[in-house]
Amino acid sequence: MILVEDLVKKYGPFTAVDGVSLDVAPGEIHGFLGPNGAGKTTTIRIIAGLLKPDSGRVVIDGADLATRPETAKASLGFIPDRPFIYEKLTASEFLRFHGGLYGMDGDGIGRRAAEMLELFELTRWEGELVESFSHGMKQRLVMCAAFLHRPRAVLVDEPMVGLDPRGARLIKQVFHHMSGRGVAILMSTHTLEVAQEMCDRISIIQKGRIIARGTVEELGRLAGTADERLTPVFLKLTGGAGLQEIDEDL
Ligand SMILES: Nc1ncnc2c1ncn2[C@@H]1O[C@H](COP(=O)(O)OP(=O)(O)O)[C@@H](O)[C@H]1O
Ligand SMILES: [Mg+2]
Question: Is the pLDDT of residue 159 over 80?
Fold first, then answer.
């Protein structure tokens, strides 16, 4: 559903993304795990069509992002790490606006918005201005918008940062609900526990390169340990290089 081949992105002389390939199947929650600065946000922004890669290819539900950008983007939902919402809109107005951007009609938006607001426990606040919302509520509203147009694939950049346990639990439930309906989810995180708990498969990125990929069990075996935690994978695979950075960030 999400296919990424050999993406490269340079900022001046610095290569932030250095040949990243990924594939996320329908119904899969795929973790994109790595320390801060590894290249997760850059990769996700490229897949979302917000940033042009120097080379490589992105295909969403069979549509190449470079040659059929409208089709590719119509199948995609994107939840950025620092979402922007117009504060002077109510939650309902924001969703109407967003649905309009995706060409949904008024009735369709209304029904689907009600469903999403319910799912994300925001129904009570649908008529309130976004400026009165807490961080967690804003994040949930952005997720309502991202799922509104029934995307087949959703990109989420660091969804758990700054959430209280209840908000985090709700988001986990919703992602599982959506993946159960066949939505492919690519979720970046710098937190091992988040990836382990939520993801069917995990791709580990370090310094712009994928250094390992698999289920939690597969990655554990790769590291030659019965311990299911992934830390030993890093120790093994990086051969000690950059360990301090990884220890700090994971
Ligand atoms: N606009 C930019 N200009 C120059 N360097 C950037 C820019 N955006 C990101 N970088 C650098 O690229 C690397 C990857 O960043 P990013 O994709 O944000 O990583 P992550 O999301 O994994 O923390 C970092 O070293 C970061 O400093
Ligand atoms: Mg980031």
Answer: yes
Under 8 Å between Cβ of 96 and 109: yes
The answer on 197 and 98 residing in a single domain is no
Q: Do 174 and 118 fall within a single domain?
A: no
Split into its structural domains, the chain has a count of 2
pLDDT one-digit tens code per residue, 55-84: 999 999 999 999 999 999 999 999 998 888
Binding site membership of 84 for ligand 1 (Cβ less than 6 Å) = no
Nearest CA to ligand 1 atom 5: 11
* All residues with CB under 5 Å from ion ligand 2: 40-41
Same domain membership, residue 159 and residue 135: no
The residues, ordered by sequence, that sit 6+ positions from 247 with a Cβ below 8 Å of its Cβ are none
Give the per-residue pLDDT at 217: 85
Expressed as residue numbers, the domain containing 57 is 2-75+153-249
Ligand 1 atom showing the smallest separation from residue 157 Cα: 21
Tell me the ligand closest to 36's alpha carbon. 1
Using pLDDT thresholds of 50, 70 and 90, give the confidence band for residue 230. Answer: low
User: Using a 6 Å cutoff on CB, does residue 16 contact ligand 1?
Assistant: yes
Give the nearest ligand 1 atom to 44 CA: 17
Between the CA of 37 and the centroid of ligand 2 the distance, in Å, is: 7
- Taking each helix axis from N to C end, the angle separating 106-119 and 91-101, rounded to the nearest 10 degrees, works out to 130
User: Within this chain, do residues 31 and 100 fall inside the same structural domain, yes or no?
Assistant: no
pLDDT tens track for 118-132: 999 999 999 999 999
Closest of 19, 38, 56 to residue 195, by C-alpha: 38
Q: Are residues 136 and 203 in the same domain?
A: no
